[in-house]
What we know:
Chain A is of the alpha/beta class. Chain A has 14 helices and 19 strands. Helix content of chain B is about 10%, strand content about 30%.
Amino acid sequence: MFDVVVVGAGPAGLAAACRAAESGARVALVDDNPVAGGQIWRAGGGRPAGPAAAWIRRAERNGVEWLAGARVFAVPEPGKLTIEQFAGDRELGYEKLILATGARERFLPFPGWTLPNVMGAGGLQALAKSGLDVAGKPVVVAGSGPLLLAVAKYLRARGARVLLIAEQADQAALLRFGVGLVAYPGKLAQAVQLRAGLFGIPYLTGCWPVEARGPEKLESVMLRRGRKTWTERCDYLACGFGLAPNLELAALLGCRMSATGVAVDELQQTSVAGVYSAGEATGIGGLDLALTEGEIAGFAAAGKTREARARFGARERHRRFAGGLERAFALREELKHLAQDDTLLCRCEDVPLGRVRGCMGWREAKLHTRCGMGPCQGRVCGGAVEFLLGWKAESVRPPVFPARIGSLSRD
Amino acid sequence: MKVSVNGREVTVAAGSMVSTAVAAAGVSLYRRSVTGEPRGPVCGMGICFECRVRIDGREHCRSCQIPCVDGMEVRTDV
């Protein structure tokens, strides 16, 4: 039995676990990945580095119990979670629960997007960090958001030939955002530093991929910018259209949702008493907001309301920055017309868009086409369906991740 | 450390994920979809399930989330 269980060991989860443990709570930190740090601090060689290492040491010093490679797949009753690890499954009891489940990339279908070596932008970066050799490989980075710049910079540092970055947002929107950056000196320095690492790589705004081609794996990508269409030969297409929060566990627990993610009150508590949420799960906001929300949730879950309140001002500043980001990188209408009727929308069950478009909503699509009913449970097609057809995921049922039969039949 | 991918031995750095060993073996087809299309990793973070392979006889393992262990046997396209 733990005072506080934190799900997700990215920035928000680490900050929450540390603050709760430092406040005297008995804390467990659970994460699907083998190493803490989340996606943004994912390190190569299986060892956390930089700020993640410091947070992890701090968590260890304060006695946080670390449960790695652990997927939460069910919530059998209030106060209990069932987790599955490679070795087997176990139940975790908690007084307070903090959901710091982070975000995933939003993928949009276009002809050829299912070919091997067409990946997420963060996806290719994550694979390169875990050892994939990209040296000398021609790569096109495409999609939307600041992540594209970080990915291009990282891939280049690993020796990849980054041919170009295709950002779907228009220059005008980005310039408005760039001007807004002056109010945030730290962020501006970061942006300049990123640009420096990208010297010589064309950053094409108002540009997006329209088709990926190759017989058995990617060989080239066709891009569009304005009226111009052309083809780039490449080994990898790293393509992600921004981020979407991971809401499955919160939905399973019955937490109310806001327009941006899990709805929370000023102390980061969800609509379910004793369940808190912090970081990208409550709405995409970036690293600084995640850390601050995590600290607030950790303090609040441990009963340290005064310490939590002291961070409200910082949270407000970071939220304003996040709002600017969202407006600058809003997805354009043209992207809704990339996928054709025969383009696969659900890549688990190979369901083309044309079959789903004829349905009234998610429920009918699931019943009639199996869209969203494969192993990923709609985690990949869900974001696309929301953007293309305007349907939000309706219900979540356990297991929220595919689990072994032995884990499901434990009772 | 050494890992076998479809019977071929590859050497990978400690801490590498199984997905890395598969790529290092020159394999881009990790699995076939329900209609037979070739597929490989997409998200790199354990949510898309496209990088599923067989590891030491266990089916449907997400290769991007499992670190290599010396002597591991990996099979793709199963």
